[in-house]
Amino acid sequence: SLVHGTEIVAGAQKGHYAIGAFNTNNLEWTRAILAAAQEKNAPIIIQTSMGAAKYMGGYELVQHLVQDTIKSMEITVPIIMHLDHGNYDAAKAAIAAGYNSVMFDGHDLDFKENLEKTKELVALAHAKGISVEAEVGSIGGEEDGIIGAGELADVEEAKQLAATGIDFLAAGIGNIHGVYPANWQGLNFDRLKELTDAVSIPLVLHGGSGIPVDQIQKAIGLGVAKVNVNTEQQIAWAKEIRKYIEENKDHETKGFDPRKVLAPGTEAIKNTVEEHIEWFGTPSVK
Ligand code: G3H
Ligand code: ZN
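^ Those are the sequences you sent over. The predicted structure of the assembly is below.
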């Protein structure tokens, strides 16, 4: 069932594991992510970027889709519905539409404005029990039109953002959206340690696709309690569908029946999500 996120992510921080936050794009992705959570009997965060929500028909539609899919699949594990990298208007719209959690990504604003807008959204969201994630520094690369230079999170700014009452903090620690370049230097654990020493709320690791598992687990050990994964699901999905189409392109119906064509992609997403839940050490719920 849909639940709010604050306590679950705080519990992960205390227990030194993380909750996976997986991006959805449509009905099949939603079903795959929910099925993986149910299979592992573990809580997860299902999230949409602004671009995905627009693509799917808006925040209300997404909220209803997730809620109704949970019902029809008889999903019993806790599911948190989250807005990923929202601007101010998107965060407000997601709060109004009944999301359980929102990220306000103000990395492109000057810091004072980021702080003020974060504060306003915390008041709005907390009045409804909705959690808020803010961002300090930036995540390198690009995700759905959100572009970041990848500058390291400033510890002083992290403290000021944490003081607004936010529930989780996304921090730039050398992480990058999308595929990591061959010459990537790895996560900056020194900065991560400085940040977790300075703020008490859970930190969020963005750009979870392609980070070596030992680095992810080390980050979790240092206080990361939410890990975002998007690209890895897209790659797994595309690979299996491409293979299926190649193999069945001359078949009478298999080659074009959408329910058949999309099925291997859905299965690939489910497997990817399950694997990440294991890597993050999310324990099963009783
Ligand atoms: O906000 C979403 C994530 O940070 C996903 O990053 O596509 O590199 O896994 P990724
Ligand atoms: Zn991100």
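Residues 85, 139, 143, 177, 206, 228 surround zinc ion (ligand 2) (CB under 6 Å). The longest strand covers residues 79-86.

Shout if you want it in another format.
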